[in-house]
Amino acid sequence: MQHTPDTEVSLIDIDKVIEAKSKRLHRLLPRPIVSYIKRIIHQDDINQFLISCKGLEDFDFADAILRKFGARISVSGLENVPADGRYIFASNHPLGGLDGILFIAAVGQKFRDIKFPVNDILLYLKGFRNIFLPVNKTGVTGRRAAELMEEAFASPSQILMFPAGLCSRRIGGRIVDLDWKKGFVGKAVSTHRDVVPVLISGANSSFFYNLSTWRKRLGIKFNIEMLYLVDEMYKQYDRDLSITFGRPIAWQQLEGRKAVEMAQHIKQTVYSMGGR
Predict the structure, then answer these.
(1) What is the tally of structural domains in the chain?
(2) pLDDT of residue 8
(3) Average pLDDT, whole number, for the chain?
(4) Are 199 and 252 found together in one domain?
(5) In angstroms, what CA-CA distances link 21 with 108, 223, 224, 255?
(6) Is the domain of 28 the same as that of 100?
(7) Which positions ≥6 away from 190 have C-beta within 8 Å?
(8) Is position 68 within any domain?
(9) Residue 233 lies in a domain
(10) For a pLDDT cut of 90, what percent of the chain falls above it?
């Protein structure tokens, strides 16, 4: 494990994060609300952890996070994926935090060159600077993010994706993803990448799903429950987590088909893997 003691640690500062996203919002937000956000995202604990992991990056950083949360992980089906291919690993998104770390660690057991498109706010986790790709669709930053995405898909790197975008919700009594966005299907065809279906276990708390349900009933568009995803991650201590890899779906099988339909078909394929 590499550990570079002289590497500068970038700590999380919610004030600066909010200001960087919106100076107007930063001015208008009452200080008690900012303090509350700091508590629910566990800013102090995260920063202590970042200091303890000084110098760790990429897969070493992912392993350190899994150890911190006492996660017992089970990886199966990775032998289904030939080592000489270029892939899009498409997974369900049950947790909104620890599942992404497990995703990185598991794929890293076989492939050491990976890229993972994420919300640009996660770029504050500098330990994943070599893996994370920013998803930002507006302004100059959005243009640069698009360029980085194109470069990644053209490269030999393996691409990890949560096609739903948002983490799973409780729908009809089941914890499942929302509809998968079709973009990864088009990318698979245009860049000649086979798609590997991936199933990750896990669920958030009833509080998270109930908050999501009531937010929608009240007609609130802002994704309030997203603010609690770090807190949900801290509820995942000492859990058994599993990740299952299916056989690659050749990009030629997707060519000429409706991307929307194929995205949902691959989503169904992922969930059917849970019955194995």
Answers:
(1) 2
(2) 65
(3) 90
(4) yes
(5) 31, 16, 16, 38
(6) no
(7) 153
(8) no
(9) yes
(10) 70
pLDDT tens-digit profile of 98-123?
999 999 999 999 999 999 999 877 88
Torsion of CA 218, 222, 223, 227, to 10 degrees: -110
Strand-pairing partners, residue 174, are: 171
Q: Give residue-wise pLDDT tens across range 156-197.
A: 999 999 999 999 999 988 999 999 999 999 999 999 999 999
Instruction: Please check whether residues 6 and 132 belong to one and the same domain.
Output: no
99: nearest Cα among 88, 85, 113, 89:
89
- Its domain, for residue 207, covers 76-275
pLDDT band of 248, cuts 50, 70, 90: very high
Question: What does the alpha-carbon distance between residue 64 and residue 56 come to, in Å, rounded to a whole number?
Answer: 8
CA 163, 169, 172 angle in degrees (round to 5)? 120
Q: What is the CA radius of gyration of the chain?
A: 19
pLDDT at residue 7 tops 80 = no
User: Considering the domain boundaries, does residue 65 fall inside one?
Assistant: no
Q: Which positions ≥6 away from 187 have C-beta within 8 Å?
A: 88, 153, 159, 193
Predicted confidence band of residue 275 (pLDDT cuts 50, 70, 90): low
Report CA dihedral (209, 212, 217, 220) to the nearest 10 degrees. Answer: 170
pTM (2 decimals)?
Answer: 0.91
